[in-house]
Amino acid sequence: MTEHVRIENSDRILTLTLARPDKKNALTDAMYGKLADAIESAEFDPSARVILIRGEGDMFTAGNDVGEFAAVAAGKSEGSRNVVRFIQSLARCTRPLVAAVQGRAVGVGTTMLLHCDLVVLAEDAQLSTPFVSLALVPEAASSLLMPARIGYARAYEMFALGEAVPAKSALEWGLANRVVPLDKLDAEALALAQRLARQPAGALIATKRLMRNGEALVAQMQAEGEQFAQRLRTAEAREAFTAFAERRPPDFTKVA
Fold this sequence. Notes:
The protein has 256 residues and is of the alpha/beta class. The chain has 11 helices and 9 strands.
């Protein structure tokens, strides 16, 4: 439901709040669509000079709604295309992106941070990318961006083993700019967004374009997306999502 994304535009800062705390801010097709609409529209809105992304409740986001993945794996759905719009909008966004992250950031909750220009973590934040554990592959150009950011060894471990990276390590590895106490998170992220909003917008946009090739990232996303879609329809994926629903560990040794 689109009410699960709250949008506020104030003082040249467009704030996008994931507002589905009862479901750990798990992202649905409708939520992806509303986020994509907001980010795409900001490109043509001079009052939106900075975009701030945050989550309501005790978790940034549990990632994609697993129920939607499971429906695709079971052949009951063709899947969402709004997630593609969302991650491509991040890659093409010329506005500065600031993220405020508390609790767990799972899957796309972590990979979207690779597209943010400033990332503030609460001390309790944990970043994880358990794609392989769900019989899937990385997305959002993270197969390119993550190794470039933290090195192949660390990136491979994050993807292949899916273990959570605590805030302190994420900061040391270069996945974040700040780690602050939880009660200071929103204030710190807002202060950084306000500082960016006071900077010359044209210079910020030109700098970001020099530092990031959005179309190259979109091309990587498309390559990942083909593999992701194929993997969702495999026996491994069906076992992963069946096990999740049945609250048991998956057994991939029995999958041909």
